[in-house]
Each structure stands twice: as structure tokens, then as C-alpha cells.
Amino acid sequence: WATMAEDAEAILKLKRERRAVILAHNYQTPDIFHGVADIVGDSLALAREAEKADADVIVLAGVHFMAETAKLMNPSKTVLIPDAHAGCSLAESITAADVALLRAKYPGRPVVAYVNTSAEVKAASDICCTSGNAKKVVESLGVPEVIMLPDEFLAQNVAKETGVKIIAWKGHCEVHERFTPQEILQLRQTHPGVVILAHPECPPEVVEVADFSGSTAVMADYVREKKPARVALITECSMSDNIAQNAPETEFVRPCNLCPHMKLITLKNIRRALEEMQTEVTIPAELFAPARRAVERMLAVK
Ligand code: 13P
Ligand code: SF4
């Protein structure tokens, strides 16, 4: 059994040998986030960085749809995911056949797919969005009504911010759907002065009683720039662990829910992924062009 330090050291060596970079989502544990990752960020940053990555191999320390997006944006690279079972309750809530039914039911409405979807669903959609750009993407379409899937709560939160009518799907993030407004109000009582930042995958009633809502990168920027004395990040547990290391002046109140999919990725399986060059993520040929187009359109929205 190798220790954590031995695994981390082996990973750093393998990265050089394989000419590999590790892109890690903000929900990865600190040993990955601070220890071995080359680039960390929210879903939007990881998509942008994957496109730019100058390496032979991209290891995506995150969930499967993120690795698919990386492959779509940089197809000549070998993209590895350390555990191919790292899924997402949102991505699993909808298929391309469901998108076709929605289009038939609501003809003429553009389909905005959250990046938390499979390549198959992206290919059936017009444009992607992330929690970091959903408002801009919806507004960029310049229409009064859109279909936005699969996250019902993100759709409701964006509808409130934009005034665009949104036809939603009933998918939920199993991490964020569990937060309640009661929990937030309780936090305010027990931790006076706490600034509450909620992820837009939370139910609208939760976002309503928070001080601010934004993607994981927006939360990290808020803490870095505003240096609040006390903060609660209403999101996955590793988020606070990761940013607390660089924010000694901030007290982190930590109500959090764990994402079991993100937590499938470990130092051990990152090491194994690089040793064995497994599991390689590929996109079926017929899906590649339309799925990439949806992501490219999103990245073109300024
Ligand atoms: P962002 O990092 O883009 O805010 O997404 C959160 C999330 O749940 C990703 O799985
Ligand atoms: Fe999916 Fe939610 Fe986990 Fe993100 S936190 S991967 S949205 S289940």
C-alpha cells in the first residue's frame, strides 16, 4: 500500500513521462486539487482549458460528462477518466430521445443543454451552458422562450434572472437538491454575519434566501476578492476545503453535501489511470460534430 505522498510523487513523475496534464474540478478532494492538479476550476473553465491544453494526455479529475467535453474540445489528445463510473444525477436524467420529444412538443424553441449532459444529449441540443454562463447564453439567443435541460432548478433560477420563459426538464443535482431554506435561515441564526453563497443548482427557495448565487468559480472569486469574515458555501463539501487553504482570514461554516460521483476519483486511481492509460474517453463518430458545435457555440458567447 502506497502512502498518499508516494501516490502523489508517482503521479508527478508519470505526468512528465506521459506529457500529461490533470484538469480537476473544484469538488475534488484537496490532495488532488492542491497536490497534483495542473488546472482547477468550474465546468466552464475546464472546458476552456481542455481546448487549450498543450499535452499528449488529459486526465480529467471530475465526472464523465466533463471528460467527454474535454475530448470534444481537444479530440487529438488522449483523454482519461480515472473511474469511468463517475456519473452525475443530472446527466443521467435525460436522453436524446427525451430531447426529441421536447422538440416535438415545443417546436421552434431553441434547446439549451447544461454541460452536465451526455455527448448524445449535447448533440441533440442547439447550445450548451454552464452555471457560470447560463444567464448570458439564454439572453444571447434573443428569443422569449427556450427549452433548458436537464436541471429544473437552474432553469427556474435563470428564468427569474432573465425574464425569458423557460421550459424545463425535471432533472436535479442530488447534491444541491437536498439543501433547504430552513437550513439556511438556521445558519444565519447560529452564525451571525455569515455571507451565504448558493450554487444555482439549489432549489429557487434556497437561492432566494442566500446572499449571492454563482458557479463554483464565482464562489471562489467572491471569497478571494471580498475576503468575508464568515462564509457558507451551499454546495459540495470539498469546495470549502479547497478554497479555505488560501483564505486564512475567512471562517468557513460548512453545511455541505457530498457528491458520490466526484468522490470516486482518488489519488490511487489517478495514478493507475496514468500507469495503465485507462479509461480512455471517446465520442461516437456520429455524435462528435453536433455535440462539439453545441459546446463551441457556448464558448463563443461573450
Ligand atoms: P460548476 O463548477 O460549473 O459550478 O458546476 C458544479 C457542478 O455541480 C459540476 O458538477
Ligand atoms: Fe452531478 Fe451534482 Fe455531482 Fe455535480 S455535484 S457531478 S451536478 S451530481
From TrEMBL:
It holds the Pfam family NadA. Its cofactor is [4Fe-4S] cluster. Its EC number is 2.5.1.72. GO terms for molecular function: 4 iron, 4 sulfur cluster binding; metal ion binding; quinolinate synthetase A activity. GO terms for cellular component: cytosol. Coiled coil: none annotated. One of its GO terms (biological process) is 'de novo' NAD+ biosynthetic process from L-aspartate. It is an enzyme of class 2 (transferase). It is found in: Cytoplasm. It catalyses: iminosuccinate + dihydroxyacetone phosphate = quinolinate + phosphate + 2 H2O + H(+). Binds 1 [4Fe-4S] cluster per subunit. Keywords: 4Fe-4S, Cytoplasm, Iron, Iron-sulfur, Metal-binding, Pyridine nucleotide biosynthesis, Transferase. Iminosuccinate binds at residues 25, 43, 114-116, 131, 199-201, 216. Catalyzes the condensation of iminoaspartate with dihydroxyacetone phosphate to form quinolinate. Belongs to the quinolinate synthase family. Type 2 subfamily. This is Quinolinate synthase. It comes from Acidocella aromatica. The gene is nadA.
